[in-house]
Amino acid sequence: MTALRILLADDHTIVRHGLRRMIEERPDWQVVAEASDGRQAIKLAELHKPDVAIVDVAMPLLNGIETTRQLVRKMPRVRVLVLSMHVDEVYVTQILKAGAAGYLLKDSADTDLLQAIAAVAQGQSFFSPAIARLMVEEYVRPRPEGIDRYETLSDREREIFQLVAEAKTNKEIAALLGISPSTVETHRAKIIQKLDLHSATEIALYAVRRGVIRVH
Question: Which of 78, 12, 81, 16 is nearest to 45 (CA)?
């Protein structure tokens, strides 16, 4: 039998090591790569072709939501299981829209991780019990009509939005993405216009509220 190939993406080394130990209790499962940020996760996924990617929702340079979105688009066969500390409808909704197969709370990983991996690897979905309850409550609740401004951003604009929120300069963003500073500035202007944000503080607060970045 071919081993199940798994990629771990979390910016905390101790978390990755703990997950690896649990995963390697299964002799037929193999951790093929570890990433400490979203961009590295995508590169390693393209290189190692994992069956399952376990992705922390809050990572530097590219958060877990955008990492999931790009992994699913570039490698549709990869099943993404997202790890999070948040029992929050905003996070769950964004993760599902991004294409994740499961949402696992970190505080239940010690008991549910292996079951979650097995489920998503077999083409099923998996949600921690608290998330499943939240989904039921939210989906039966009437929702106001309206446009989610963040969802109007393109993939590139969401990438740049996170980097701006992390206080990266146009030059730093340009170097990271391989584009010119003037192109970054153009995207930045469109982002500000679409989100109706007018200062670095507003951008950072909005990013925290949306779960794009976290406050340490």
Answer: 78
- Tell me the helix, strand and coil percentages in the chain, rounded to 5: 55, 15, 30
Check residue 139 and give its pLDDT. 46
Across 2-31, b (16+ Cβ under 10 Å) vs e yields: eebbbbbbbbeeeebebbeeebeeeeebbb
Please tell me whether the overall predicted TM-score, pTM, comes out greater than 0.90 for this model.
no
Per residue in 116-164, pLDDT (tens digit) is 999 999 988 888 877 777 665 554 454 555 667 888 999 999 999 999 9
Tokens of 77: 């066969």
Going by CATH, does the domain composed of 4-139 fall within 2.30.40.10? no
Q: Return the domain boundaries, the chain.
A: 4-139, 149-210
3-class DSSP state for residue 32? Answer: strand
- Write the class of the CATH domain 149-210: mainly alpha
What element of type H or E holds 136? helix 129-139
SS3 33: strand
pLDDT digits (tens, 9 = 90+) for 61-106: 999 999 999 999 999 999 999 998 877 777 787 888 889 998 999 8
Crossing angle of helices 89-98/64-74, nearest 10°?
Answer: 20
Match 């993404």 to its residue by tokens.
80
